[in-house]
Design a protein that fits this description.
Strand order of the largest sheet of chain B: 3-4-7-5-6
Oligomer: heterodimer
Largest interface: A-B, 31 and 28 residues
Radius of gyration of chain B: 19 Å
Strand order of the largest sheet of chain A: 4-8-2-15-12-13-14
Number of helices of chain A: 17
Structural class of chain A: alpha+beta
Structural class of chain B: alpha+beta
CATH topology of the largest domain in chain A: Aldehyde Oxidoreductase, domain 4
Strand content of chain B: 15-25%
Pfam families (chain B): FAD_binding_5
Keywords (chain B): FAD, Flavoprotein, Oxidoreductase
Order of helices and strands of chain B: HEHEEEHHHHHHEEHEEEEHHH
InterPro entries (chain B): CO_DH_flav_C_dom_sf, Diverse_Substr_Oxidored, FAD-bd_PCMH, FAD-bd_PCMH-like_sf, FAD-bd_PCMH_sub1, FAD-bd_PCMH_sub2, Mopterin_DH_FAD-bd
Protein name (chain B): Oxidoreductase
Distance between the termini of chain A: 49 Å
CATH architecture of the largest domain in chain A: 2-Layer Sandwich
Chain lengths: 779, 279
Amino acid sequence: MSGQDAATATTVTTTMTALTATPEPEGPQVPRGIGASVEATDTRAKTEGTFPYAADLWAEGLLWAAVLRSPHAHARIVSIDTTAAAEMPGVRAVVTHADVPGATTHGRRIADRPVFAHDVVRHHGEPIAAVAADHPDTARLAAAAIAVEYELLDPVTDPEQSFGAAALHPDGNLIRHIPLRYGDPEATGEVVVEGLYRIGRQDPAPIGAEAGLAVPRPDGGVDLYTASTDPHTDRDLAAACFGLEPDRVRVVVTGVPGATADREDAAFQLPLGLLALRTGCPVKLAATREESFLGHTHRHPTLLRYRHHADAEGRLVKVEAQILMDAGAYADASAESLAAAVAFACGPYVVPHAFVEGWVVRTNNPPSGHVRGEGAMQVCAAYEGQMDKLAAALGIDGAELRMRNVLATGDLLPTGQTVTCPAPVAELLRSVRDFELPALPKDAPEDEWLLPGGPEGAGEPGAVRRGVGYGVGMVHMLGAEGTDEVSTATVKVVGGAATVICAAVDTGQGFGTLARQIVQEVLGVDEVAVAPVDTDQPPAGPAAHGRHTWVSGGAVERAAKMVRTQLLQPMAHKLGMSTELLQIQDGRITSYDGAFSMTVSEAMAGKELWATAQCRPHPTEPLDADGQGDAFVGLAFCAIRAVVDVDIELGSVRVVELAVAQDVGRILNPRQLQARIEAGVTQGVGAALTENLRTVAGLVRHPDLTGYALPTALDAPTVRIVKLVEERDVVAPFGAKAASAVPVVTTPAAIASAVRAATGRPVNRLPIRPSAAVGAPNS
Amino acid sequence: MTLPASLDEAVAALTAMPAAVPVAGGTDLMAAVNAGLLRPAALVGLGRINEIRGWQYQDGHALLGAGLTHARMGRPDFAALIPALAAAARAAGPPQIRNAGTLGGNIATAAPTGDALPVLAALEAVLVIVGPGGQREIPVSHLLAGREMLRPGELIGFVRVPLLHAPQVFLKATGRTGPGRAVASVGLVLDPARRGVRCAIGAVAPMPLRPLEAEQWVASLIDWDGGRSLAPEALEAFGEYVAAACVPDQGEPVAPGVLHLRRTVAVLARRALGRALTS
């Protein structure tokens, strides 16, 4: 990492009071610029249900697509007979692997996934064929009428069995192995604790299921309207499969109805495009909830085995860990997820000696991929479980034990990388530890006490035990291990209005709002529009790891500054001063001495200014054979104190309160930041207590929102944002850090820790099942 | 889709179109249609039949219309009559589901996790079936157990439940604090006139289970003329008795899942009886 001196970072801290009371210079003025709670422009339309998502799109002469998916987890395809389907009235085209004109495999990172399975199906729900018909029901019936003869194979569903099993894929079963070796393998501590942890399969469960519209173009290409979060990668893989030049395929990004993982599912994007090219008609598909669960990627189920060594004072001496992640049948983002898991296996703690072996392997389980906080979330649950065990073994308070080990700027990660960014872990932990505990329910009237099990539920106050626990987590920001994280943005100003053109997708993280704030700040114009995203614009990369706030925000800022220079230079020249002596504030351009002053809109009158700029963070390097290397651009940290009530007879858990302290670098939009933290925490509550996509022999059970229980309003706890540490990361544009992922990573660990405290049970599996939270009656 | 205005018209419509499927709230049926599991040739909508949307009194019983929504049953006036059914209705899902889903639909769907079902089983409710041949009555447990089936053209018109004027409890264990599918549920009613405790366990089997021996045993311990109280040990034993009856071992060693389910049922039964006896 570049030589950043931590001492130069400005340290500002703020509490929630600062968040709610945003200072506004003039009373009725609409919030504008960096640091203000600027509202998203689409809030109203989304709230009122008028915002068009891909599922709402329409085109003249539209056909409907349906995808035939494998009902088996592992089978050899003996034959595929599409005759009956093709002959059905209203069916316009049926496509299988034989109809793929270009590359027959694809993948966002490694092209190891067939467009359509043809010799072997490797997971439940793998696409085999697709149909276009003049009615959605006809398409579904026709897809069901495709006769596929399977020869069933034994599914490999236990990742531990994958090593010895016959190869599930030509690339072999082991996708990546990282043996991290750091320090002295012979080092031992006075206290040793061991643990085995299992993390379940969280589904991103976007509230809007996958949907898309493909429209053929007169030039022989095709336009794909989808809620893609990485449009240029999707375009490239689609073009390769269609056998077209990338320019002939355009991905147009529609409103994104929820994305905490990679969208969209290529298993229907590619068939859509193929069917549109085949029929010459627009083709649409809106996935059912079941298809959505089967098609998109999930969080890696992970098995973790840990041994922590500490001295008598509780200082960590050595961490040994084995991490086994289940990739499902295809690689997707598994290699990156494993790197995060291995690199952060010890957590935000100083560990002199670490030996971590990580593997990610293929199975016939549902596919795993990028879901926010991937890798980091699974290890956080495990290392924090180990910290609780150490605290119990030493008789030290859990928060105190963590405090004795916290990482700070200048310390080394077990990958040998020096932490050069702000790492205020001690301050975060202290903030949540010292925050006032919520009142005990015995002090409130009984009918106001929401017991575990819900209002009027089975809960009984006498059986409820309260637990307090801690979680401290970390994530990396931006792509790791040498990924080129470049983004390009254009800023155009015509008259008094600006437009931002940048292919960074607003997935709900608020990039569109941030881009407007940046331009308002730099150019002093109020009216800023953000253009819809399509792949005719220069690439901005995937919306993941908080990268758009950093690289795309950085590109927008540079472009806006270039426009600013274009605007001010002629004036400065006329006034005989340099542009630095002119400033733009509150919509006015003024000179340093106040002698010259005019409004921005006056200055802009009749002018059309354009500038395009790129932002590229400093390079990183892959982890080497010993798991060593400067792999990460930046890190973000979070500490959470969880307070839970557990009915120890039924094992039902209610999270009462989560106190969050987070390292955010700089607050760019207070209200948006608060919403991101609350959303992340809630997703973490789901991972901790209810969310697990269950499989039996590789087959997904209950792929619906009744069987897959997301947190409801009653499950979402009170979230207290106790402290947002604003210690600017000098290498990041604006000094801001990614805010969405780290609460997801930390919350499950904190809840598990609190349930441990309430029940005295080990709690080594996520989600925490009621049977694991039944406590001893006298605990 | 036809929308009859009376039960007779509905029966006539169903008789005329044997392939038609009756639909009330549609919370289960339409989900199955949308999932492609069911493709009814025609629907007979029951939403406009006013005679089944309320209830009437009939010599010590209430005759509940099959079209009563969960939302309606959850209100205080209904809760004063049949408290356990009201509690089950309030627990039956989010407001959108409770506003649409009906009592008759809950019985017709007969899902193991149907919240009203253990209460109806404990109340020994009787279904009034209307059909082309007129009315007939069958106990709810017979329909749920498959001992008797609805014949072509027949509908559940009413549900007759006794008015017991005594405490009743419905409890369910779910995986989350918000509305959720029951892992196990219990409906428990006291019948002071007959000196009985009746209890049914839901969600652990395809139909609600009645632990008859446990009911009789515990009823014999209760001082019906006095304070109706029981020692904690007796409540505990009742829970264990119910759980042992309703959650069988399924072989040795007993699976951890079975142990947890049995413990859950024991706790629910114990708490339900405890609450019924102290309220």
